[in-house]
Amino acid sequence: MESENRCAALGWAASGAMEITGFADGPPVLSPAPAFGLLTEVAREFGAVTERIGARVDPDAAEVLSRRTDGDQHTAGERRGRRGQRSVGGSSRLLRSVDGWCAVTLSRVEDREAVPAITGDAGGGDPWALLEAATARWPAAELADRAQLLGVPAAALPTSPRRGMPWRSERIADPVAGRGLGDCVVVDLSSLWAGPLCAQLLGRAGARIVKVESVHRPDAARAVPDFFDYLHAGHEFVSVDFRTDEGRRELGAMIDAADIVLEASRPRALNQLGLGLDDRPHRPGQVWLSITGYGRRHPMRVAFGDDAAVAGGLVGYHRGEPVFCADAIADPLSGMCAALAAAAAIEAGGGLLLDLSMRDTAAAFATAPALSHGPHRVFRHDPDTWFVTCDHLGRTQQVFPQPVPLRPASSRRGPR
To answer: Which residue stretches belong to region Disordered (predicted)?
Structure first.
């Protein structure tokens, strides 16, 4: 992960992500730095693959992690800081259980409405107060399972993250040799962050991206226009009414014609439309990229970026207690890994299902090799400024509050 001239700890400090990891009244947390080192390696490998099959793209690891927070700052007019056991976005919390810690996300109205059923408290009350009281009585896994049964994202923090690959592959069609990304059409059925980031990276490498949205339920990321524009610059847009026969036929035709199908919903969503993986013929070379919280083998479990990171064991630690790592970090890590998986699949001829789990992605980064040199010191210069020093390199890096400014989004075609 590191070389004589590169240090993951200094890179983590400069990324903007370290600044939002930790408690508000404590220092920014250094412990996730090995994960940042692994991300730079994934980005470097994506650059190497895209150079062979398209236009070389070298993603900036800091930009990958911190762009949404930077966009939120721009929209809200204020910088978000460390929130410890509350997520940067405010929808997720780490709750102490009788045997450890559990993350719960209440980002939707239906999540909050489900809390009394999860806790067995028919009297109602503040959802977080009910969950905190229940978690204090139950094991973390029990609370997470009860929440998941009702469709609420929740995860127990593992005591030791399991090692593994972010994705699994399965043959679905014959391969086709000799294609580049410039020959590929990506039909992007995803929303929010992980899938669109994957599509953005593939588009920068030469693929044609067609983003498909439901006329009844457009991408919720549109609520933050700067972030949405960043992810979808240069993409084509199609709005489809999934409730009509004509709309389903239109979507089916796009799926069948795609070189890469990118979807990030639970399998039943497309299955209910008759457009799932097993419902369609697959042309030679087609790649079907599925991004889910826990993989297609666990189709009923739901996850968002913060709780998926906890499920994989990717958290920071301060004085023995876990804190959320950056902003919904499983999302950008999954998007980056998905782009690498898709590009590598095209280079190999395609004809594959790529089953990427956000939980497994987080676990892969949580088990990244430890920093190969040390020690690294975190110290405060003034009340608002922190630094990290790498004694091995003799270098000091300020903990930056946000990444470098981003390129402006180019114009794009609107929905039709």
So the answer is: 64-91
Q: Are 311 and 359 in contact (CB under 8 A)?
A: yes
Q: What are the tens digits of pLDDT across the range 238-281?
A: 999 988 999 989 999 999 999 999 998 877 777 788 788 888 88
Residue 14: closest CA among 26, 38, 30: 30
Query: How far is C-alpha 32 from the geometric centre of its chain's CA atoms?
Result: 16
Helices and strands counted in the chain (H then E): 13, 15
The identity of residue 146, as a single letter, is: R
The CA distance from 269 to 160, in Å, is 33
Q: Which CATH superfamily is domain 47-66+162-367 in?
A: Crotonobetainyl-coa:carnitine coa-transferase; domain 1 (3.40.50.10540)
What SS3 class is residue 269?
A: helix
| Helix 140-149, helix 127-135: angle, nearest 10 | 140
Residue 224 structure tokens: 């933050």
Phi/psi at 2 (5° precision): -120, 155
Backbone angles phi, psi at 190, to 5 degrees: -90, 180
Task: Classify residue 403 as exposed, middle or buried by CB count within 10 Å of its CB (0-12, 13-18, 19+).
Answer: buried
Q: What is the pTM of this model?
A: 0.91
Neighbour-count burial for 315-354, b at 16+ CB within 10 Å, e otherwise:
bbebeeebbbbbbbbbbbbbbbbbbbbbbbbbbebbbbbb
Give the pairing type, strands 376-382 and 385-390.
Answer: antiparallel
**59: which DSSP letter?**
-
Greatest C-alpha distance within the chain: 65
Residue 13: both structure tokens together:
């400090």
The answer for residues whose C-beta is within 8 angstroms of residue 408's C-beta and 6 or more apart is none
Burial class (CB in 10 A: 0-12, 13-18, 19+), 110: exposed
Q: What digits encode the pLDDT tens for the residues 76-126?
A: 444 568 999 999 989 999 999 999 999 999 999 999 999 999 999 877 789
